[in-house]
Amino acid sequence: MQIFKDRVILITGANRGIGRSLVKTLLEHDVKKIYATYRDLKQMPSFNDDRVVPLPLDITNSSDIAKTIIDTSDTEILINNAGVLSSGTILEGDLNGMNYDMQVNYFGTINMMRAYSPILVKNRPARIINIVSIAAYSPLPTIAGYAASKAALFSATQSVRIELAKKGITVHAVNPGAIGTDMNKGSDWVMPTPDSVAIRILQQIALENLDIIPDEIGQNMYNAWKEDPSKLAKIFSDIYHM
Ligand SMILES: NC(=O)c1ccc[n+]([C@@H]2O[C@H](COP(=O)([O-])OP(=O)(O)OC[C@H]3O[C@@H](n4cnc5c(N)ncnc54)[C@H](OP(=O)(O)O)[C@@H]3O)[C@@H](O)[C@H]2O)c1
């Protein structure tokens, strides 16, 4: 994929799940450097590749971001992958969990976009790739706080896309359905591996698609929503009442 050749990429939450798979896949495409950021060094896998520069970064911590920026001012592609999920309904879910999802998924990603936009403008043409969720289209009641945080992030992604378009920065929204990562531990759904999804995400970016649904479960949900938003709401309502 030419689009990634010789590019400098920063990815959040690179130690596991989709983030780790994105690093592995990007390394196969002649990238120049990947800043692979993590919260806990002990959880950081070795990618056995000198192009990977591991850096500590919690996206909710502004001093972490300020420190990281100093060493990563050549970033050309920012992948906002880090995310958390708290279960629970609106009426009975833990409010602390809902607040945490919002702090990480929405405000944390906004922190990163605000901090890195000047750098990306300087290094343009550049890209921001936000990993959102299909739950941004229609809420799933069992993970209502998470869905709200991702709906907010989807909205912010669409806004910033317009804000940055004239400055040479392309903003992509990736809205997966269900992927076989720790986030879905315990689920009995048959889900694609993060490695297979990472390939599909990067292929869609290479095609310059702005809104990307990289998996079949997500695509089926999106198709239902496109036909009529109430159809996706019904799918999620049925899941809730199973
Ligand atoms: N799996 C799915 O079905 C699915 C579907 C739609 C969207 N997504 C989205 O895809 C992204 C990746 O999820 P995943 O499935 O790969 O989940 P995962 O395996 O649970 O990985 C989440 C990653 O985010 C990191 N992280 C969490 N909070 C962070 C913070 N404050 N600062 C920096 N890093 C932080 C985690 O770091 P630690 O290891 O330190 O916790 C971990 O590396 C998330 O945004 C998620 O919402 C996933």
Automatic annotation (TrEMBL):
Domain of life of the organism encoding this protein: Bacteria
Membrane-traversing stretches: none
Name of the featured protein: Short-subunit dehydrogenase
GO molecular function, one term: oxidoreductase activity
Organism: Sphingobacterium yanglingense
Keywords in alphabetical order: Oxidoreductase
Family to which this protein belongs: Belongs to the short-chain dehydrogenases/reductases (SDR) family.
